[in-house]
What does this fold into?
Amino acid sequence: MLNKERMPVHVAIIMDGNGRWAKQKGLPRLAGHNAGMKAMKKIVDHSDKLGIKYLTVYAFSTENWKRSIAEVTGIFKLLVSYVNSDLKELVQNNVRVKILGDYSALPEDAVRSLEKTLEETKGNTGLQFNIALNYGGRDELRRAVEALAVRVKNGTLQPEEITEDMISAELYTGCADVAAPDPELIIRTSGELRLSNFLLWQSAYSELVFSDVLWPDFTPEEYEKAIADYQSRERRFGGR
Ligand code: FPP
It folds into this structure.
């Protein structure tokens, strides 16, 4: 049973294993991503039911461009069909969508659909659903360093005045529009034990839960198990 008093405010998920799921079933990789998208929709709904305030999913990394053109275009097609077909439901469910990452590099139809979704959900006050797209933790930090360096160059900031909060504020999660707290819980599926360039700064004190289940098989029950694991841990933040 989950303790409602100890729900994480922000859960982030590395949705890994779509390719292996498809391979196991003798299906093309894109069938795995399609199944992964369906799993993701259930987790969005369930997050809202559990009273989680922020859910971040790693949908496409800065490294994922190395995959075949067919797979990359296929993932973006899925994204467009997801946001277009689910927009009404997201609005009805009071979900606010935000993007982490430089999504201007995505195909034009994806950018258009995403911007429509951002616009139409921006007033919603329920779950904030952050989709990391063309996102990389190192790229995010590099951008933050550049933004602060510009201020130093302008003479509006002294190097020794730079604080951790200023760095946080320059990250995708820190901009006023997104304003997501650091995730208390990061889940990775498919048995891989890595962060893979996901939320490098924000994960400093996150509890990590690894599930052996491949992402398309990650059900709300598995999700609750991961949250129960998080709730069983004692968080000390370096204190005693
Ligand atoms: C990792 O599995 C998954 C991805 C790189 C893509 C995630 C995409 C979705 C869940 C569906 C689409 C949803 C949106 C919002 C675009 P993998 O392909 O690395 O699996 P493998 O490690 O088994 O090959």
